[in-house]
């Protein structure tokens, strides 16, 4: 069974231990009373991982008994969500990053000089390295032209 959208897979105490071991003071310095901000960050983090990876798990586990690496990934995501609520689920406008585009020989120039990358590769790399998820499928595009 994949991560649940209704059952939390990580406790605030597990995120406390994760954040403390890594010096993530945004979490450890945040008050635990009331607990709602931390609990809400954990829920948003779990929702993000469930939506992103539930179709890619290479092993089976129960939402209340996840591998350590999944606990770490949810914890990292929760820390980021506590620091900047909604950061895991931003609405992105890819057109805002494109400075110019052409069709002949297919060329795209991004506004900041580089193509947009995944914002949360650290979370994904943790799961990939543990062999818990498969790589994203790559899509190839073929252009046919008339000579």
Quick gist of this model?
This protein has one domain.
Molecular structure report:
There is one protein chain. The chain has about 150 residues and is mainly α. The protein has one domain. Helices cover about 40% and strands about 5% of the residues. The chain has helices at about 10-20, 25-30, 35-55, 70-85, 120-130; strands spanning about 100, 105-110. Strands 1-2 form a two-stranded antiparallel ribbon. β1 (about 100) and β2 form a beta hairpin. α1 packs across α4 (about 70-85), α3 (about 35-55) crosses α4 and α4 (about 70-85) runs antiparallel to α5 (about 120-130). It is globular and about 60 Å long. The N and C termini lie far apart (about 50 Å). Residues about 140-145 have low confidence and may be disordered.
Topology:
Blueprint lengths: L11 H10 L3 H4 L7 H18 L14 H16 L14 E5 L4 E4 L10 H9 L18
Low-pLDDT segments, ≥5 res: 139-144
Number of strands: 2
Calculate the terminal CA-CA distance, rounded to whole Å.
52 Å
Shape: globular
Radius of gyration: 19 Å
The domain tally reads 1
> Overall pLDDT, averaged?
80
Structural class: mainly alpha
How are the strands ordered across the major sheet? 1-2
Beta fraction of the residues? Answer: 5-15%
């Amino acid at each position: 069974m994949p991560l649940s959208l209704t059952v939390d897979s990580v406790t605030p105490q597990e995120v406390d231990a994760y954040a403390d071991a890594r010096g993530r003071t945004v979490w450890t310095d945040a008050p635990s009373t009331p607990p709602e901000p931390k609990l809400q960050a954990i829920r948003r983090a779990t929702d993000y991982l469930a939506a992103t990876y539930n179709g890619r798990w290479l092993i089976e586990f129960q939402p209340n008994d996840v591998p350590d690496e999944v606990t770490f990934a949810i914890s990292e995501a929760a820390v980021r969500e506590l620091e900047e609520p909604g950061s895991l689920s931003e609405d992105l406008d890819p057109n805002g990053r494109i400075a110019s585009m052409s069709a002949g020989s297919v060329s795209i120039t991004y506004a900041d000089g580089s193509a947009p990358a995944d914002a949360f590769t650290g979370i994904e790399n943790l799961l990939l390295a543990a062999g818990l998820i498969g790589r994203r499928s790559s899509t190839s595009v073929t252009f046919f032209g008339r000579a």
